[in-house]
Design goal:
It comes from Citrus sinensis. With 130 residues, this protein is mainly beta. It has 1 helix and 9 strands. The strands form 2 sheets. Strands 4-1-7-8-9 form a 5-stranded mixed beta sheet, with no helix packed on it. A 4-stranded antiparallel beta sheet has the order 3-2-5-6, with no helix packed on it. The radius of gyration is 19 Å and the shape is elongated.
Length: 130
C-alpha cells in the first residue's frame, strides 16, 4: 500500500470515529458573562452546551465568567445558561451561532434582561429571558 493510500485511510478512520457534533472550526469564541444585577446581589450561573456542562459558578457584583470554545462545523453551536438570584431562575441562550456573529462576546446580566455589549458602542442589544 502506498504512503498516500495509508494517509487517506488513516484520515478516513479519524473522521469516522470523531463525534461530528464535536468537530470544530474557525477561531476561538470568547464569551464573558458579567454580573450587573446591582444592589450587591450574587449571581449563580450554570452554562451548558449539548456536549459540555460548565458547572455552577457564583459571581459577585461585577465579576465575570468566561466561556471559550470553537464553533462546530454544522453552524449550530449553542450554549445556554441558567441565572439565579433572589430565589428566581431565568434561562437564556448565551451563545447561539445562528444569532451571534461576535468572536469576543460580552454579556451583562441585568435583573430585567441580558444585554450584549460592545466595548466601543456600549449596549448592542438586550434580550428577554426564557
Amino acid at each position: 500500500m502506498s504512503s498516500f493510500t495509508k494517509i487517506m485511510l488513516l484520515l478516513a478512520l479519524l473522521v469516522l470515529y470523531m463525534p461530528m457534533s464535536d468537530a470544530a472550526i474557525g477561531p476561538k469564541i470568547h464569551v464573558n458573562i458579567y454580573n450587573k444585577l446591582g444592589n450587591g446581589l450574587d449571581l449563580t450561573v450554570h452554562c451548558k452546551s449539548k456536549n459540555d456542562d460548565l458547572g455552577e459558578h457564583v459571581l459577585s457584583q461585577d465579576e465575570s465568567f468566561p466561556i471559550n470554545f470553537r464553533r462546530n462545523v454544522f453552524g449550530n453551536s449553542l450554549f445556554y445558561c441558567s441565572f439565579k438570584w433572589n430565589g428566581k431562575v431565568h434561562w437564556f441562550d448565551i451563545y447561539d451561532q445562528s444569532r451571534d456573529s461576535c468572536h469576543d462576546c460580552k454579556w451583562i446580566i441585568l435583573q430585567d434582561n441580558p444585554c450584549l455589549v460592545d466595548n466601543s458602542f456600549g449596549i448592542v442589544g438586550c434580550h428577554q429571558y426564557h
